[in-house]
Amino acid sequence: MTDLARTVHALRQTRFSGWAAWVPTVVRVVAGGFFVMVAMGKFFDYSKEVDDFRSYEVPWAEVAVPFVGVIELVGGILLVVGLFVRPAAFVLALNMVGALATAGRVEGGSFHLVYGPALLVLMIFLCWSGPGRLSLDERATGFRHVFVR
Q1: For the CA atoms of the chain, what is the radius of gyration?
Q2: Residue 54 belongs to domain spanning
Q3: Percentages (nearest 5) of helix, strand, coil residues in the chain
Q4: Which has more pLDDT, 116 or 138?
Q5: Are 15 and 128 in contact, with CB atoms under 8 Å apart?
Q6: How far apart are the two ends of the chain, measured CA to CA in Å?
Q7: What is the pTM assigned to this prediction?
Q8: Is it the case that residue 149 has pLDDT exceeding 70?
Q9: How many CB atoms are located within 10 Å of the residue 73 CB?
Q10: 32 phi and psi, to 5 degrees?
Q11: Dihedral sign, Cα of residue 35, residue 54, residue 120, residue 109
């Protein structure tokens, strides 16, 4: 097996076995759904989001809103289905760092200073833990029995 193949295989593996392997599953599905929901707001209420981004001092707000929306939408969908979980969680973690550095710094509030840090911690957890059960990543590395490894 080549180094690249070993790396891809390792990225698709979960660190947990047995019942504990369900923890990353729950985390990725709930967090992924949340990211999809937030991303949809960036497209359905574009002008308000652009105004918000401007107030957060985000440069090129007209471009940043759809860019961030696509990152959150695609990343959220990847988490929900469990495909490329670690890379998606890494990109979404960077997104949360950006959100905390902009909206969290300027506006604060429970949404930016509670959900943002919580999602950042959850994305770091998924980068470490892997996809958990019922993921396309798991299926790509071969079928695993649901409760025993």
Answers
A1: 17
A2: 26-140
A3: 75, 0, 25
A4: 116
A5: yes
A6: 22
A7: 0.82
A8: no
A9: 19
A10: -60, -45
A11: negative
